Amino acid sequence: MEEGTFGLNTVHIIDCGCVTCLGDSLDTLWQSLLGNTCGFKPVRRFNTDGYVNNLAGCIAELDDIPHGKRFGAILEKVCQRSIQTTADAVLLTATTKDNIELHEKYIRDSDKEPVKFSACSMIDYLAKTLGIGNHALNINAACASTSSAILWGAEMIDNEETDMVVVFGGDIVSEFVFSGFSALKVMSPDIGRPFDVNRNGLILGEAAGYAVLMSETKVLKEKRTSLGKIKGWGVSSDAHHITAPDRNGSGLQRAIHSALTKASIGADDITAINGHGTGTVHNDAMEITAFSKVFGDAMPPVFSIKGAIGHTLGPCGLIEVLVGLRCLQEQIIPPVTGLQCPEPGIEACVTMEKTSMNGNYLLTTNSGFGNINTALILEKV
Questions:
Q1: What is the reported pTM?
Q2: For the chain, which domains are there?
Q3: CA atoms within 13 A on the CB side of 169
Q4: Residue range 235-253: average pLDDT?
Q5: 100: confidence class by pLDDT, cuts 50, 70, 90
Q6: Which residues have a catalytic role annotated?
């Protein structure tokens, strides 16, 4: 990178990592995605009788860890690597349920001594483990939690409130969450099929990961290697329904337009879209509508990784940003695992095969319960 090519408040990602059901690193996840690998297996850690499905994207080695300790274990797996951070960095954590298994244990063992737990064990553990001081905050924005945290971190750097932010997200497959999605009737009875005409629901997954955001000034001063830039971002709320998306996708459209404006680029500069793509009937339809309104007949290739690793809830946005960075680095778009017959209106933009791309900008979107929508534009370095 040459000094003359940078803006003062450009946001870079200088370090990242993740664990999913498809491996303990971004490298293994990436290769599995390119190979169209699906990580779904029967759930072993609790009885699934009476639920819509028995499949999930679970990390196998967590199954043998005692109930109540799996969330801590998945955080520890990520923290085993050397995360590039400093004591004065801002820590933004993101999780939808934290260590929900402790709550389950308390309910089931209510005749015993109450279980003691922190309101957010994740932020306590990570602040101590990473040696980060008082600059820490947890964000819960449902399925847009980590994308909201990345957006917030980028905004803080852009506003010169800090020059370094560590975003860390994690959630596990628990019976509480599994039963909830089954009761909502948004869980597929077989597999996940993002953007497929026959899609019938999502499959849950679990993951944890991190991304270290840094200002361009600090990147240059410390001679860091940039993995990619966060060029633009946008967030919106539909205020439509607690769980169902606004069918016309107006909120997601606003978030995308805000991100494009922040990035100072046009819609035709976007080379690929990493969609939320849960595989539910209404979410995918809403996204297709929003993308069609923003991009018209020039909609770029669209993909989703949730047919491979499941819907990991809080960390999904972060994992998708990391995959988006790899897409830009290698100029490859992974296949949409689970796709068989594309939904009309997007059939020319999704594929069951990996494809090449040629461009500098990738859009990644997320939408969560409560009608929050986020859009992040990544730039190749």
A1: 0.94
A2: 11-221 (3.40.47.10), 231-379 (3.40.47.10)
A3: 33
A4: 77
A5: confident
A6: 143, 276, 311
